[in-house]
Structure formats: structure tokens, C-alpha cells
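Usage

Read records sequentially. Each one opens with the input sequence:
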Amino acid sequence: MTVADSVSVEAVVEKETASSRAHKTLTSPWASIAAIAIAVLWTIPTIGLFITSFRPEQDVKTTGWWTVLQNPGLGGLTWANYDAVLHGADTDLAVYFVNTIVITIPSVLMPISLAVIAAYAFSWMSFPGRDFLFVAVFALQIVPIQVTMIPLLKLYVQPPFNLQPLAGADAPGGGFYTIWLSHTIFALPLAIYLLHNFMSQIPGELIESARVDGAGHVQIFTRIMLPLMTPAIAAFAIFQFLWVWNDLLVALVFGGGSLDVSPLTVRLAELSGTKGQDWHLLSAGAFVSLVVPLIVFLSLQRFFVRGLLAGSVKG
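and closes with the structure output:
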């Protein structure tokens, strides 16, 4: 055995030993107890908010949610808060719920569609200035959204990119179109970076074999890249969906202030009333807005960790 071989064997043994130590540490009873304790502490506020959403207004404003534990019966719980939130004359969330879906779905699909194509170009196509352009796109992540709002809004309402006819007269300076474009612009740098890092880890031999068989860029992209990139796309889709669904600032600024295009978060911000007298309805409204993101996350969670870790390092 040569010196190089012996060094290689020692490195493998050392790596396995480190992996074994990490595995034992993470699977020890103390680690499990700590994980359970953290999960319980993290969940307590959510449980309290959930219980509060079913309590009468007087109870919410006079006692804490933990007093329900002293009398665990259902006598003191009511659906009145949810009824007021979903069907109230001034707090009807049904329209805003639909607006949020209309805003979120295109705002997720548009950046993913553009980012996948751009990531493929940066990873497997050679063109002048490719590395510089990729660094420039990556650097856009550090630009605060607040800094871009006024210049971007001017582009929307002034020539040559005037979107006012698309927005309509009832949405001065904005509409669904401007919200979709804004979310897409803000999401593209991170999306391109994550998808590029995932795509660049695909073995080059696979791409070369496809080229030898006569496949072009379109066939390689559609038949090889897209199926392999499902975890990364799903991971970013979760991030983008949660960001857009819970967004208030972008929708409020680029929506033009029109209630016809306002999402759920805008109505939730006004749910407590002009003087804060209806703040007991906020817990019910929060859980109404929580349902869809929770379903999306649970549906795609099997892709989440795998896609996130694969796109977090450069291959």
C-alpha cells in the first residue's frame, strides 16, 4: 500500500468516526428530550392563539387563554369570532381570501418559470460575461425591497412602462399586474441562485451523454433537468408561497390601495377596528389565513429539506 493510499484510508476512517459521533449525539436520549422541549415551547403560543380564537369577546379581554385549562369543557367556547370574521358586514374575508389566491399563484409560478431557464443558462451554456452577470444577479439579494419601491412604482405609472390601462381606473397606480411583477422581480435573485447551485451539481457526464445522442438544449432542459430539479423547485415554491401569502407591504404599495386587489393581510391589519376595539377578532382571522399555507407546506414538506440543502451549497 502506498503512502497516498494509507492517507486516503485514514481520511475515510476519520470521516466515518466523525459521522458516527455526530449520529450518536443527535440520536441520544438527551437530544430527543431537548428537541421535544423546544417543540413544545415553540407550539405553546400557537395553541394559545387557537384557543383564544374560540373564546367570547368578554373572556378574551378580561382573562388569559390559559384559564380555559381550569375548566376544560366546551361551554365557554364559541364560533362567534369566526362567524364575524368570515361573514361580518365589515370584516368579510371571503373576497380578500380570493384576492390572496389570485395574487399568490402567479407570483409563485412566474419567478420559478424564469429562474429555471436562467439557472440552466448560467449552469450549462457558455456566453460572454456569464460569471459576471451571475454575480450581479446574486448581489441583488442585498438590495432592500424598501429602496426599490419608489423607482419601481414610477416605472409602472410613467412612460414607457405605464401599466395604468391594465390596472384600471379603480386602482390608481397599481393592480394585480403590478403586484405580480413586483413579487417576481424581488424573488428572481434568490430563485436563480438556489436553482443554479442545484443544477450545477448534476454530473456533467449526463449532459455530455445527452449531447452525444443528439439532444439539444431544449430536450436536455425538459427531459433531464426539470425532473431532477423537482425538490429544488418545490423548496423554493414553499418559500415564495409563504412570503407572498403573508406579504403586506408589497401588496399595499403596488396594489394602489384599492380594496378590489387587496390581499388577506391588508384586511387583517384593519381587522381590529379604527380604535382597536375589535382586536379579539385577530386570532380568528390569523387562523383563517393560516389554513392554506399549512396545507401547502405539509403537501411539499418531503421535498423541502432535500431541495433546500441541495441548493444551499455550490457544487
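Summary fields computed downstream for this record:
- Residues 3-15, 168-173, 311-315 have pLDDT under 50 and may be disordered.
- The radius of gyration is 25 Å.
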